[in-house]
Amino acid sequence: xxxxxxxxxxxxxxxxxxxxxxxxxxxxxxxxxxxxxxxxxxxxxxxxxxxxxxxxxxxxxxxxxxxxxxxxxxxxxxxxxxxxxxxxxxxxxxxxxxxxxxxxxxxxxxxxxxxxxxxxxxxxxxxxxxxxxxxxxxxxxxxxxxxxxxxxxxxxxxxxxxxxxxxxxxxxxxxxxxxxxxxxxxxxxxxxxxxxxxxxxxxxxxxxxxxxxxxxxxxxxxxxxxxxxxxxxxxxxxxxxxxxxxxxxxxxxxxxxxxxxxxxxxxxxxxxxxxxxxxxxxxxxxxxxxxxxxxxxxxxxxxxxxxxxxxxxxxxxxxxxxxxxxxxxxxxxxxxxxxxxxxxxxxxxxxxxxxxxxxxxxxxxxxxxxxxxxxxxxxxxxxxxxxxxxxxxxxxxxxxxxxxxxxxxxxxxxxxxxxxxxxxxxxxxxxxxxxxxxxxxxxxxxxxxxxxxxxxxxxxxxxxxxxxxxxxxxxxxxxxxxxxxxxxxxxxxxxxxxxxxxxxxxxxxxxxxxxxxxxxxxxxxxxxxxxxxxxxxxxxxxxxxxxxxxxxxxxxxxxxxxxxxxxxxxxxxxxxxxxxxxxxxxxxxxxxxxxxxxxxxxxxxxxxxxxxxxxxxxxx
Length: 620
What we know:
This protein has about 625 residues and is α+β, with helices and mostly antiparallel strands.
């Protein structure tokens, strides 16, 4: 799960900080003016993994055969093909229709490589960026992708798109055409190393197509794109079929060679996870990423697996995992008390949950930037303290001198010790127990919590937590709603607590405003799900965005991490550093798998394996 804006095929990673030492990390191409770097890509690390002359990605087979139909499953349904607005529910993988100026790859997450744009130019002072479009770039109707399309896309997304676009692109003063194929973006505000790479991930839309339609409305007209696939067939909310564009302009680019090998991709939608799994066992679809530890541990022994027709593997990956949690909604007055939030943290027994419900598969989430070097896992450094000191007395004292650890147990199920601690905290904060109910000192009302869920899978996890809350005098209940109702209630912040996920990249940046900044707390559809309004947190977010180098970025991110943690805005959940995958053995798979997760579009249908499965045989 990621908090970045995405449209199905590709996460639009909007974090950037160049390596310490500046633009020298970007390989320079000929033709740039003095003081300007011209390159085929941008990186956040020491160097781009792939140099200017690379022919294909390391984790593909450039000669992979094309053909066949990939069958997938989605949960819920869809009612719109417009993934850029707050209204409607787009189908999975709708991003296959669209392209950005650049693209990220699964073995070099700190970098972006030219896609619609063939090159990028950045001055040393980072006051602007120019992306030069490839003359061969085409929309599916054959019309060329022009600078006017890029400029229109930026303006439409900022003015009519999801609220997050206004924050990501807020530091762009203007965009203008330069030359025949160039687009220049001029920046405002402080020097920001993030902005050039943010620009590259703007999805490029056809101005001519959208100017005759209402961009701000949902639609079931398959939109015009420039990507590897187009919509071929659909029946909302049941299924959608994408077909590969035979004359796709980008098929021979180095970042695309050996990818997008399926002629068609069909996605059938289900409203029940158990039914979805049974459909996989019956080979209604081909590939499944499992997100339930219980199903993974108990429901993957079936005849097709035992015979070898289905392969099941937990594949290690190194992606940043961010924070999954039970999130308090601070817009509810009862949750504005930090003491209450910390006390309720003690009611969640992760160790027992992991042992008895998750079959020991998970690790505890103890950072908003888990599984990265950005996590605050030690006492604050000198650089961190310099950022925190101006806010002493306005952020929790523990942020200066204590490493955060969530409450822990021995896993036996006896959580009495933590509940006693929680009760003492509550009594010290002025709460009272009246008739076995916890009474709020501010309003004199019983403390009650509704957990809003969209997946019934979480009921078995929340129920033990509710039992422990009851021992503290807190009344808890679960409400499971359908996807559309859940989306609407979350958009309008109409909940007490939800299961939230704040996805992160290896280089956080502007997207942090959408998660934590005061300006997003009251904006419907923002990712500030907690409702945080805190000037210290605002300042730390801006320090991340303005970080001049990698070391400064790490310090600012760790400072933010520890302040968020010690505010106890959430009850941290768990994470896993493996992808739990199952697939029918009809695929060819490259010899090298990328570090940051499997790229299914680098696989292909193996004709011999496919024939064996169709004949009821086990592929060799």
